[in-house]
């Protein structure tokens, strides 16, 4: 399946790192194997799951423990009664439970741990609310109370690499990368790489990412990609995760401090005059005041219009008062639209991938207009925003202290990767030894 020689040894080396877990649902719900929990968690002593979280949980000998799984079409009430609870107890327990969870949203397959007294009274319910939180319902005299218990967890890191035979997705899957991480990997490179055209057989990928483990090692949640690398036709693209000071969100940066994301161009047209701003104005044709949800550029008919950023053409056709119209989806957040064009750029049609700066059409006066111009709109999460004041939280290039700060993060990440790699070489045949506990 893979090419021979050095390539193969690379695969062998990395293949031992990660147990094959390609399905997210199964990763979430399936305990890790014995040896992986033993090697990665390093619990001080063997403790069972049932007594892990609950210092105040009843002593095992006085109680009967049951695991309950909600069946299809079953409500929590029925499930509790089925498992042996008195109707009145189940009702009161659910009441308490409702403080932390909408019980009508409960889904088939949801598991709960239930404790009954030796006399058969419903005593305690535990349900995982999310990765870090457990809902606990406890009996108090004849009623029930509920609270949330925060569950301890730790972050480990993993390293994987491989050779692309067909697609990055399949190559990453073969190395045991969970789907959610692969999707993230593709997303962070999507500003640099045209995945439909630029991937060749023999290209390589490398990834270093985090994974959250519950203290008992039974639950796993995939975390952030800290570093990713693609080698495309011999050319390396490295991305490091970093949150610049003063920014709310982490971003991915090349070694030179350039954000992987590129800002949208504010003016997707050259040599044009801004003729109408974003905001309230008197509509030139309809006569009444209305919100102008874009900006207009006045330019001679036939002036080229460029794609404001990389993306996929969602529409390139007549659209009512907009006339000849193009809409580009740049990513999950941004779209841009271009209206009143005289004609479309070469090859511009629905589904086509465009690069920032590519000509997508030409200025015209189609649709409901008084004169030739480009009407340009930027959509952010589904609503129009002012392109002139838009602050895309990226597209930045770090400089001076910000760059130095980033280079420290980079060096730290590189060091962690080197450690992970040397660990693999030392323990090539031991699964999961590439996991390193983060400081
Ligand atoms: Zn306009």
Question: Could you please describe the fold and organization of this structure?
Answer:
There is one protein chain. This protein has 439 residues and is of the alpha+beta class. 20% of the residues lie in helices and 33% in strands. It contains eight helices and 24 strands. Strands 11, 14, 16, 17, 18, 20, 22 and 23 form an eight-stranded antiparallel beta sheet that branches. Helix 4 (76-83) crosses helix 5 (87-97) and helix 6 runs antiparallel to helix 7. It is extended. Residues 1-55 and 429-439 have low confidence and may be disordered. Zinc ion binds at residues 276, 292, 294, 296, 375.
Overall pLDDT: 80
Number of domains: 3
Q: Level of helix content?
A: 10-25%
Distance between the termini: 38 Å
Classify the fold: give the CATH topology of the largest domain: Nuclear Transport Factor 2, Chain: A
Tally of DSSP β-strands: 24
Query: What amount of the residues lies in strands?
Result: 25-35%
Instruction: Give the structural class.
Output: alpha+beta
Number of helices: 8
> For the report, how would you describe the main beta sheet?
8 strands, antiparallel
Low-confidence blocks of residues: 1-55, 429-439
Main attributes?
Nuclear Transport Factor 2, Chain: A, Glucose Permease (Domain IIA), 439 residues, six-stranded antiparallel sheet, disordered N terminus, alpha+beta, eight-stranded antiparallel sheet, extended, 3 domains
Write the layout of secondary structure elements.
Layout: H1 6-15, H2 24-29, H3 34-41, E1 63-69, H4 76-83, H5 87-97, E2 111-117, E3 122-130, E4 133-140, E5 143-150, E6 153-163, H6 168-174, H7 179-189, E7 204-214, E8 220-232, E9 235-242, E10 251-253, E11 273-276, E12 279-282, E13 289-292, E14 295-298, E15 304-306, E16 311-318, E17 324-329, E18 334-341, E19 343-344, E20 353-354, E21 359-362, E22 374-380, E23 383-385, H8 400-426, E24 436-437
Antiparallel strand pairs: 1-2, 2-3, 3-4, 4-5, 6-7, 6-24, 7-8, 8-9, 9-10, 11-14, 12-13, 14-22, 15-21, 16-17, 16-20, 17-18, 18-22, 19-21, 22-23
Helix pairs in contact: 4-5, 6-7
The structure holds zinc ion.
Zinc ion (ZN) binds at residues 276, 292, 294, 296, 375.
């Amino acid at each position: 399946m893979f090419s021979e020689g050095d390539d193969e040894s690379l695969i062998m080396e990395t293949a031992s790192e990660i147990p094959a877990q390609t399905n997210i649902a199964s990763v979430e719900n399936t305990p890790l194997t014995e040896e992986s929990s033993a090697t990665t968690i390093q619990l001080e002593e063997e403790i069972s799951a049932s007594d892990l979280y609950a210092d105040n949980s009843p002593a095992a000998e006085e109680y009967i423990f049951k695991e309950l799984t909600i069946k299809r079409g079953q409500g929590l009430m029925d499930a509790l009664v089925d498992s042996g609870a008195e109707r009145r107890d189940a009702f009161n327990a659910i009441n308490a439970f409702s403080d932390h969870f909408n019980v009508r949203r409960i889904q088939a397959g949801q598991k709960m741990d239930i404790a009954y007294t030796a006399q058969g009274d419903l005593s305690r319910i535990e349900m995982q609310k999310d990765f870090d939180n457990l809902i606990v319902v406890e009996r108090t005299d004849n009623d029930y109370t509920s609270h949330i218990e925060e569950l301890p967890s730790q972050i480990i890191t993993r390293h994987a690499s491989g050779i692309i035979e067909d697609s990055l997705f399949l190559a990453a899957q073969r190395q045991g990368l969970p789907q959610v991480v692969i999707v993230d990997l593709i997303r962070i490179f999507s500003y640099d790489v045209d995945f439909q055209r630029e991937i060749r057989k023999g290209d390589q990928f490398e990834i270093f990412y985090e994974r959250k483990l519950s203290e008992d090692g039974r639950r796993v949640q995939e975390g952030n990609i800290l570093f990713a690398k693609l080698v495309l036709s011999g050319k390396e693209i490295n991305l490091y995760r970093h949150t610049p000071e003063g920014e709310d969100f982490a971003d991915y940066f090349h070694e030179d401090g350039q954000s992987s994301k590129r800002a949208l161009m504010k003016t997707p047209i050259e040599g044009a005059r801004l003729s109408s701003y974003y905001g309230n104005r008197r509509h030139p044709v309809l006569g009444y005041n209305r919100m102008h949800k874009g900006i207009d550029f006045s330019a001679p008919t036939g002036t080229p219009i460029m794609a404001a950023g990389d993306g996929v053409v969602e529409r390139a056709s007549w659209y009512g008062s907009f006339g000849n119209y193009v809409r580009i989806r740049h990513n999950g957040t941004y779209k841009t639209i271009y209206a009143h064009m005289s004609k479309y750029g070469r090859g511009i049609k629905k589904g086509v991938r465009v690069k920032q700066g590519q000509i997508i059409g030409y200025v015209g006066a189609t649709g409901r207009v008084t004169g030739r111009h480009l009407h340009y709109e930027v959509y952010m999460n589904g609503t129009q925003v002012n392109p002139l004041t838009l602050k895309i939280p990226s597209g930045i290039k770090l400089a001076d202290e910000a760059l130095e700060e980033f280079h420290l993060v980079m060096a730290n990440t590189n060091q962690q990767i080197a450690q992970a790699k040397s660990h693999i070489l030392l323990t090539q045949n031991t699964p999961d030894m590439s996991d390193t506990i983060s400081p």
